[in-house]
């Protein structure tokens, strides 16, 4: 993916080098300098997010390591987590993906699948 | 001197029970010397403690004399007071008007001990200015009805129980 970005950038960079070599004491000819808009890499793949969320759950609660955890798994109903456990789990997930889950969203995340969907839709997730 | 009793109308009640060994486990897990663990512990407590409670917790943590039991009971008591109060609010605040749990837990009120050692709950009168998105909730369901909380906590060995009641001393609440 990075290669595809650099493929786009190269022609501009070479133009820039040509322009910069004659910059000293001269006005920049802006005709030859084309601004380039660079986009960040694609959001994290959903399958990868699911795997990472499940890993966090299994590491968080020892009993969950032996249970089957899937996108359909509900925190309270299937894993027996109460509200304090869920607070602790969501903090672990925030750290895993380097995000902060808004208060209102946190109240609504009741399952693995809902959590994955939220992270997938968050462009700041890593 | 006896305080005169003012007539109020009970509008909400909530309760919670905490298994204290799970709080002790939380403390053991996250308050070891590893910086990352302590950082996560602070992030967890910041999800449900008001800044005044966080200061109290910091004081207990830095005081070498604070026993683990004292810390466990403090954290368990704060958590139980939050859950109980949220449930009490849910008795009369419509679901679509109640702020998110973390907003209520960390911003709306805090638990303190009175001079006689009894727990009390105090609404934070700065909530309305610091939480502009929830101004209507505070105005309609706390300020105008003049909601006053009462809290009672009991703990015995591994369990802590908390009861919170909310009474209105002002204008009647209409759902």
TrEMBL record, chain A:
Q: Which domain of life is it from?
A: Eukaryota
InterPro entries reported in the protein's UniProt record: ACP (IPR003231), ACP-like_sf (IPR036736), PP-bd_ACP (IPR009081), Ppantetheine_attach_site (IPR006162)
A Gene Ontology term for the protein's cellular component: mitochondrial [2Fe-2S] assembly complex
Q: Which GO terms describe its molecular function?
A: acyl binding; acyl carrier activity
Q: Which residues form the Carrier domain?
A: 47-123
- Write out the annotated subcellular location: Mitochondrion
The function of this protein is: Carrier of the growing fatty acid chain in fatty acid biosynthesis.
Concerning its family, UniProt says: Belongs to the acyl carrier protein (ACP) family.
> What name has this protein been given in UniProt?
Acyl carrier protein
UniProtKB/TrEMBL annotation, chain B:
One Pfam family from the record:
ACPS
Q: Which domain of life is it from?
A: Eukaryota
The keyword Ribonucleoprotein is assigned to this record: no
The record's SUPFAM superfamilies line, in alphabetical order, gives: 4'-phosphopantetheinyl transferase
Q: Which InterPro entries match?
A: 4-PPantetheinyl_Trfase_dom, 4-PPantetheinyl_Trfase_dom_sf
> Per UniProt, which keywords does this protein have?
Transferase
Q: Where is the 4'-phosphopantetheinyl transferase domain?
A: 12-93
GO molecular function annotations of the record: holo-[acyl-carrier-protein] synthase activity; magnesium ion binding
Presence of keyword Lyase: no
Q: What is this protein called?
A: 4'-phosphopantetheinyl transferase domain-containing protein
């Amino acid at each position: 993916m990075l290669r595809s970005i650099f493929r786009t950038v190269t022609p501009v960079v070479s133009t820039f080098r040509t322009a910069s070599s004659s910059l000293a004491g001269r006005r920049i000819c802006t005709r030859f300098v084309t601004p380039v808009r660079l986009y960040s890499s694609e959001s994290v793949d959903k399958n990868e997010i699911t795997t990472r969320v499940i890993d966090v759950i299994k590491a968080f609660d020892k009993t969950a390591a032996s249970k089957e955890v899937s996108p359909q798994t509900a925190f309270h109903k299937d894993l027996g987590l109460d509200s304090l456990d869920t607070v602790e789990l969501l903090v672990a997930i925030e750290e895993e993906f380097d995000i902060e889950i808004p208060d209102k969203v946190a109240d609504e995340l009741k399952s693995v699948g809902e959590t994955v969907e939220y992270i997938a839709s968050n462009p700041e997730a890593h | 001197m006896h305080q005169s009793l003012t007539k109020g109308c009970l509008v909400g009640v909530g309760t919670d029970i905490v298994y204290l060994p799970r709080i002790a486990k939380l403390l053991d897990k996250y308050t070891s010397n590893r910086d990352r663990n302590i950082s996560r512990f602070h992030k967890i407590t910041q999800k449900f403690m008001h800044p005044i409670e966080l200061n109290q917790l910091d004081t207990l943590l830095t005081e070498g004399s604070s026993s683990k039991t004292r810390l466990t009971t403090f954290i368990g008591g704060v958590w139980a007071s939050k859950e109980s109060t949220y449930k009490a609010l849910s008795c009369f605040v419509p679901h679509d008007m109640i702020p998110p749990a973390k907003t209520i837990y960390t911003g709306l009120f805090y638990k303190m001990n009175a001079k006689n050692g009894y727990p009390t709950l105090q609404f934070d009168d700065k909530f309305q200015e610091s939480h502009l998105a929830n101004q209507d909730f505070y105005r309609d369901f706390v300020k105008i009805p003049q909601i006053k909380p009462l809290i009672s906590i009991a703990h015995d060995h591994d369990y802590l129980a908390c009861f919170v009641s909310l009474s209105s001393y002002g204008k009647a609440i209409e759902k």
